[in-house]
Amino acid sequence: xxxxxxxxxxxxxxxxxxxxxxxxxxxxxxxxxxxxxxxxxxxxxxxxxxxxxxxxxxxxxxxxxxxxxxxxxxxxxxxxxxxxxxxxxxxxxxxxxxxxxxxxxxxxxxxxxxxxxxxxxxxxxxxxxxxxxxxxxxxxxxxxxxxxxxxxxxxxxxxxxxxxxxxxxxxxxxxxxxxxxxxxxxxxxxxxxxxxxxxxxxxxxxxxxxxxxxxxxxxxxxxxxxxxxxxxxxxxxxxxxxxxxxxxxxxxxxxxxxxxxxxxxxxxxxxxxxxxxxxxxxxxxxxxxxxxxxxxxxxxxxxxxxxxxxxxxxxxxxxxxxxxxxxxxxxxxxxxxxxxxxxxxxxxxxxxxxxxxxxxxxxxxxxxxxxxxxxxxxxxxxxxxxxxxxxxxxxxxxxxxxxxxxxxxxxxxxxxxxxxxxxxxxxxxxxxxxxxxxxxxxxxxxxxxxxxxxxxxxxxxxxxxxxxxxxxxxxxxxxxxxxxxxxxxxxxxxxxxxxxxxxxxxxxxxxxxxxxxxxxxxxxxxxxxxxxxxxxxxxxxxxxxxxxxxxx
Length: 552
Fold this sequence. Notes:
alpha/beta
């Protein structure tokens, strides 16, 4: 429920924190005092379109903070899904600057308008002569009926949902087999071509790197031949060279082997000699293989182009291409066996479709049973509100299958005897809609998802006995849901649990609205003011007001 609302620079309000209680909260005040500002501020907080006209004159921005407590499980699940810490208390802050920029925070975390909308739907409903809490939207009517029906419909709907999901999974598998026979044949031909193209390439892991190295070697063969030849001349030429000098040096020292340091040096020279000889052999082999072969170069270049083409089509390297080939092979085998698989799937599909139709029929019958009860309950509530000739019906049409079955549901309404029953949104006037909304709320009661319902002058145009019935219904709803109500009707105000008075005062410079909580005699005076309709109240009005307040 809404615990408190703090407004900063909102219309005529400079800075004000308004505390609300569970049960029936009544907002009183003279016309023009700013009662509707509280409703506009709460509506803005919960995602209504930002209106720069709400910003107090002379200020550059407004801010509204709302604290919600006693959170229901749905709200907690949403906050937990967003990983927002809330400690059993939800704080929403929304600001609006004069340039039209708006920001939202949920428990201190930056939030989007979509997040706020999802959360607001679980927190509050706004009901007035021009509000419908979704009642005028036929797209919501099936949901409302199912909520009224409760567990029996929910259990039946679970069966339908399970079968619908099974059907979609089977259809997905059928589609994965390539659709019809012509499409499967076409896909098989594509797969066979891809597999053959890869197989004919005879790919080898590491081949690309080896080819590139060989290509570079042949391309540089002339340079390699010259450079390696120069080195060999220095290491192993006919005349003086490193190899010959090392050989002579080790032989010269052989006769002095009885001297430890000389022998050690000789051994090291000998090791160098053999190491150089090995280098010479390797370089000689390289030089002999450096004959420039344009045909081999062309062959390597062609092979690299082939690999490049395969990598472009099937993967970035040899491993990827071979993986792609394996997947194609598996898919081809699946398609080749698809005839039997498809036959099995089509049989399963037909079976599930039959069961889905049966489950949907059962669900529809349960809904129609509760729809009859729902119709009677709405008409009974409206009769209490002096709309005795009302006709309210739930119209069923058969639509396409979904997780909700095949029912398309819309509410039909006629306010007067002999009047044609028509779609609700085409028929109900403002006053009729007000009473219809109240009847709807009273019928739904503990089935509502929201914890706060706002009634903005829903009693407009209603008086006498009807106003008394309306007040009783508001009290009944407040036993299940927090109510915030703006009213000018004494009998309605007298039933409230918490009273808030909006007052406007003007000085030489500005006009300010304030909100204060009423207690004891102040409550009696304000209800009496509604009775007398003036600033000064009579003793008779005070006595009547006291009776209204004390009899609740």
